[in-house]
Design a protein that fits this description.
Blueprint (H helix, E strand, L loop, with lengths): L1 H12 L8 H9 L3 H9 L3 H8 L4 H10 L2 H10 L2 H10 L2 H8 L4 H9 L3 H11 L17 E2 L4 H10 L9 E5 L5 E6 H6 L6 H4 L6 E2 L4 H11 L3 E5 L5 E6 H19 L14 H18 L1 H9 L1 H6 L7 H25 L7 H31 L1 H31 L9 H24 L2
Parallel strand pairs: 1-2, 4-5
Antiparallel strand pairs: 2-3, 5-6
Helix pairs in contact: 3-5, 4-6, 6-8, 8-10, 14-15, 17-22, 19-21, 19-22, 20-21, 21-22
Length: 449
């Protein structure tokens, strides 16, 4: 039944809508679950999504709005009335507000901040004071530490009386008298301990991060240790906020999406695909296409340099797609693997030589297998000389491409660039030109050209 209602709602949103249709749309939307409403909003233009928001109950509209990416939220704000914008913005968490403010014009951001209470404005402004990309922008400042000298009974009373000020109740930071982080205590330990037990006797050693640390690194660290939350401290180890596991998952997902996009040769959309304007999609792709078109000139120049060699042995031209494709794919595999290892913390910049040696061996082994097959097939059709050229080139190209693809992301990270910028198309183009040089040099040596 709900599937039929959902289909009817989607169909109505794609048609012309008049004020007289509002009652029908509101009735349909009221019967659809929140996850399905989120999917509907993500699949329609912002103006249509804003229309549906006006028909939803306030609590359902807020749930849907908070689930959207900050870029999509900004698009919706442009289509909503001022009072609706203020309502949504006031109910958001401070970290979600900070992310949204990065997406809207300065004039809109000022207006939104003025609509907040003094406390909420101070919390949000504090997050905006941290650098973009730092975990301070993504943490929740809504945390109330408990002193190590207090009893379990006192801590539980504090949780009951001030629970609205906590982002999470399951991990409580513990501080000393100067507000410096000294440990963490779980709600379970507080609940099961005798009332007069001090928090210092219950707390565990903290795993924390500085507010200026990179958001992706901190998020992945939290996910790796399997904790529900992580305290965030300032340069003097004073508690300033907390990162929860749901926010860490959002950060990691956004980073993975960005890496996947750049490996594919375009910038991430930061909005649902169907609700992203066509020109925005074009802008996300055109820069990379231009870069790759310019770098592809290298391949053309290599072919021009060895034009005489091709003229003497025309059959060499038949194997160019095989060799360039194999080199590009081998480099892409290595680059993708190492980029992922960097993101997960499995590989560090200091491991560049270890990675180079490892990928060289991997590439050599792959090249030996593929080269042997290439030698057999080419020898049967074109003779052993051509077979030797193909086999040796595959061995050389795979070794070179794997080594290059493995170290380029590490070099990028070392110089402060995004490893994902060395995307698959870029590495493919570079390996094409280098692989062709190796191919023709080997051909000239083996065939005596």
């Amino acid at each position: 039944m709900e599937a039929d209602v959902l289909t009817a709602l989607e169909n109505r949103l794609t048609q012309d809508i008049t004020p007289a249709d509002s009652a029908e749309l509101a009735a349909l939307a009221a019967q659809v679950s929140i996850p399905d409403l989120i999917r509907v909003v993500e699949h329609v233009p912002a103006k249509r999504g804003a229309l549906m928001f006006r028909l939803l109950a306030k609590d359902r509209a807020l749930h849907v709005f908070e689930a959207l990416d900050s870029g999509h939220q900004a698009d919706l704000l442009a289509a909503l009335r001022d009072e609706e914008i203020t309502g949504f913005f006031t109910e958001m968490d401070p970290d979600d507000r900070a992310a949204l403010l990065d997406e809207v014009p300065a004039s809109v951001a000022d207006k939104l901040l003025r609509g907040l209470t003094r406390r909420e404005r101070d919390l949000t402004s504090a997050l905006l004071g941290y650098p973009k990309g730092s975990i301070g922008r993504r943490m929740s400042p809504e945390v109330v530490p408990v002193r190590a000298s207090r009893t379990a009974a006192y801590a539980l009373d504090l949780l009951r009386n001030r629970e609205a000020e906590y982002e999470t109740l399951y991990m409580i930071p513990v501080m000393d008298d100067t507000r410096r982080l000294v440990g963490v205590v779980s709600l379970r330990d507080l609940f099961t301990a005798p009332a007069d037990t001090t928090v210092a006797d219950l707390m565990n050693a903290p795993i924390s991060a500085y507010a200026t640390d990179d958001e992706e690194r901190v998020a992945r660290e939290l996910l790796a240790v399997g904790r529900i939350a992580m305290p965030i401290v300032d340069a003097e180890d004073r508690i300033v906020g907390v990162l929860t596991v749901d926010d860490a998952l959002e950060i990691a997902e956004a980073a993975d999406t960005e890496d996947a996009a750049r490996h594919g040769g375009h910038e991430p959309l930061r909005r649902p695909y169907l609700s992203t304007p066509v020109l925005s999609v074009v802008k996300s792709r055109i820069v990379w296409l231009l870069v790759l078109a310019v770098s592809a000139v290298l391949t053309v120049q290599v072919l021009e340099i060895f034009e005489a060699t091709l003229a003497e042995v025309v059959v060499l031209a038949l194997f160019i797609p095989l060799l360039t494709g194999t080199g590009g794919n081998t480099g892409n595999q290595a680059a993708t693997t190492v980029t992922r290892a960097l993101a997960l913390g499995d590989v560090w910049s200091r491991d560049v030589l270890a990675v180079l040696w490892r990928e060289a061996r991997i590439g050599f082994t792959l090249g030996a297998v593929l080269g042997s097959l290439g030698f057999l097939v080419a020898s049967l059709v074109y003779g052993t000389s051509i077979g030797a050229v193909i086999g040796l080139t595959l061995l050389s190209v795979c070794t070179m491409a794997a080594s290059l693809g493995g170290v380029m992301p590490i070099i990028a990270k070392t110089v402060g660039a995004d490893p994902a910028v060395f995307s698959n198309p870029f590495i493919s183009t570079f390996c094409d030109a280098t692989g062709l040089i190796m191919y023709f040099l080997i051909a000239k040596a083996v065939l005596g050209l």
